[in-house]
Amino acid sequence: MGKFAFGQSIRRREDARLLTGDGRYADDINLPRQSYAYILRSPHAHARIRGISTDKAKAMPGVLAVFTGAELARDGIGTIPLLTPTTNRDGSIAPAPPYPCLAQDRARYVGDAVALVIGETLAAARDGAEEIEVDYSPLPAWSETAVADAGHPARVWDEAPGNLCFDWEIGDKSATDKALAAAPHRVKLTLVNNRLVPNPMEPRAALGAYERGEERYVLYTSSQGSHFVRELLAKNVFKVPENRIRVVTPDVGGGFGAKIFLYREHALVLYAARKLGRPVKWTGERSDCFLADTHGRDNVTEAELGLDRDGRFLAMRVATVANLGAYLSNFSTFIPTLCGTQLLVGVYVMPAIHVSVKGVFTNTAPVDAYRGAGRPEAAYVIERMVDHAARKLGIPPDELRRRNFIAPAKMPYATTLGLTYDSGDFARNMEDALKLADAAGFPARKAAARKAGKRRGLGFSTYIEQCGGGPNEAAEVRFDPSGSLTLLIGTQASGQGHETAYAQILAEALGVPFEEIRVVQGDSDQVAFGRGTGGSRSLPVGGAAVDLAARRVIERGKPVAAHLLEASAADIEFRDGRYRIAGTDRSVAIAQVAEAAFDPLRLPPEIEPGFGATAHFTPPASTFPNGCHLCELEVDPETGTTRILRYLVVDDVGVVLNPLLLDGQIHGGVVQGIGQALLEACVYDAESGQLVTGSLMDYCMPRADDVPAIESRYNIVPCASNPLGVKGAGEAGAIGAPPAVINALVDALAEYGIEHIDMPATPERIWKAINESGGT
């Protein structure tokens, strides 16, 4: 095993620049003669646009142009596409209304883009926007995550009566109904999965240019995949060949799913740059993150679980209403349907299950994938239901899980919702977590806390998620004539440590110095192909492509090494960065082979000069990371304040490449999950549709003192769906944390008769629940 082999905690090499101010983010890029864009956004949640007067704005000093939706439509600019059309349970196709780059007939949420102003400076563009006169005729607004009465006057889209976008189902309804009807025990819960604002450290930004000589668009932007953005701009917005658009993504300060999508601003700066003949730059402010970024979650679910007399699961019925917002973002309908439902069986034997999902339009910002993308919602439902059932039946929550876990001997295991888990030891994860947390000593700690006037709770979740699947990813390993190595790959780092992880794989495989490997991502001109980053696929899919390309490079070099060593290629072996004649001490370094490979005078005529390889890896199946998250917390009943005392994770994410990187990903996800459970909620006023939590003054994100030191342990069960055996870990923390925290909180409040408390469980909400229960 070498210095960079799997399991080595190599420090992130990109941190040297990212932590010292030498990173290069989208807003750091400036072009000659650059102008600035400002977007006028609707102050109304719902209003008819009777007219827009831009004359005063155009006359303002420093204003270069003002564009409206009507002008974009006349110029043939396309709309933001929905990539996942949904089929209703009756077989009809759900409506997919247009998502224009600028609103035209109606503004449909507070923050809807109405006009684009370009100025010599940002201040000039902003001043120009103040002079635009929009004749709004306000309409009734609907912002609730529930299906509106068909007769309600607030209809977001005329083609969606009752604001219903789709009515979808999966599972066996007949078998589920029958099993529930006969079940000796049935428990129910209504669960709210609160709306979240992703809030990456770096707000979105876009700088567009148009190269008239080549008739080509160039976009610099903060994204999770340059090629994906390029494809949608080419096919759907500008309707040009993809090679007429270049997309460059430099360093990215956090994505969390929200930077995957094609946004209006991508198209608008390119359109304006072409019209004006000079670059146009837009940089989002924090308020834009709240108003115009895609939001996450926002589901209301009614669930019913049936159990036999021994506490074994018989069936579960789940009915969810998913808020989609006013427009359908790229994957919006996929997240609450197939992506967010197939894991509702969790890690348990569930003989029958039926899931129905209704997607609704509301006068709110679009909702799409956010860290975990449907899987956190599923884990929250099943893990709350299991804990609730345990409390109702008087069975310890760990024992109820033991009775229902899928056993390792059953792997691969086909679930009743169509997935096949390839590996996992769910009971071991839980047992290890309980032992490490000294669960046996918890009653004594609980009693001591009560004497001190506090209420202590212990809760955990045993989750599973699906990732590392989807389409192919490509990697190109390219040596140059000097013998140095460059990797070009189509995934996109946004803080995960890709440069370190990929260099680690290549250093171990090829024996090239780790520090000398250059990793290139994010430029569609340099990297030939890419699918971007999402769904924890970068190592399981991208890393597998890197490994495969490295193996091909080794094979590509054997004939060259054989020629240099005057041996047969069949006698050449590769180890520790050197090609050797098997059974001898004669060898040549891979860098020397690379130098020779570019010199035709040093090669036999049958060998083509050059030294590199490209590999595509298409995963045959998804991976299924799983684990147990355990939370011990304390509640002050006089104030409702919650303090997390201990948080422990035992995860199976497959083979571990770099424990240091892995811990960082788990910790970040856990903090986001704790934020959802206790602090974060994006709230719209039910009457007006106004965004109540429109800034960090109103929207509470977790701080350092909200989170304890997070303890991590790993049970390594390699998966079989990629050659590295890795399962992915980027979303795991955000999936396991919310149910673990709420289960612990309900345990702490059980003496008050409180059976459930919705997220976010703020001090006010907890204090009210205690007082309404009659407790003191």
Shape: globular
Poorly predicted sequence stretches spanning 5 or more consecutive residues:
none
- DSSP, total strands: 28
Q: State the end-to-end CA separation.
A: 60 Å
Structural class, by secondary structure, is alpha+beta
Beta fraction: 15-25%
What is the overall number of helices? 19
Q: Would you tell me the overall average pLDDT?
A: 96
Using only C-alpha atoms, the radius of gyration works out to 28 Å
The helicity comes to: 25-40%
Side-by-side strand order of the widest sheet: 3-5-1-12-9-10-11
Largest sheet: 7 strands, mixed
Task: Describe the protein's architecture and organization.
The chain has 776 residues and is of the alpha+beta class. Helices cover 28% and strands 24% of the residues. It has 19 helices and 28 strands. The strands form 7 sheets. Strands 3-5-1-12-9-10-11 form a 7-stranded mixed β-sheet, with helices on both faces. Strand 27, helix 17 and strand 28 form a beta-alpha-beta unit. The radius of gyration is 28 Å and the shape is globular.
SSE arrangement:
Layout: H1 15-18, E1 35-41, E2 47-53, H2 55-58, E3 63-68, H3 69-74, E4 106-107, E5 113-119, H4 122-130, E6 133-138, E7 164-171, H5 173-182, E8 185-196, E9 205-211, E10 216-221, H6 226-238, E11 245-248, H7 264-276, E12 280-283, H8 286-291, E13 296-307, E14 313-325, H9 335-341, E15 352-361, H10 375-393, H11 397-404, E16 413-414, E17 420-421, H12 426-436, H13 442-451, E18 455-464, E19 473-479, E20 485-489, H14 498-510, E21 518-520, H15 538-565, E22 572-575, E23 578-581, E24 587-589, H16 590-597, E25 612-617, E26 626-636, E27 641-652, H17 659-678, E28 710-714, H18 732-749, H19 763-772
Parallel strand pairs: 1-12, 10-11, 14-15, 20-21, 27-28
Antiparallel strand pairs: 1-5, 2-4, 2-6, 3-5, 7-15, 8-13, 9-10, 9-12, 13-14, 16-17, 18-26, 19-20, 19-25, 22-23, 23-24, 26-27
Helix pairs in contact: 9-10, 10-18, 14-15, 15-16, 17-18
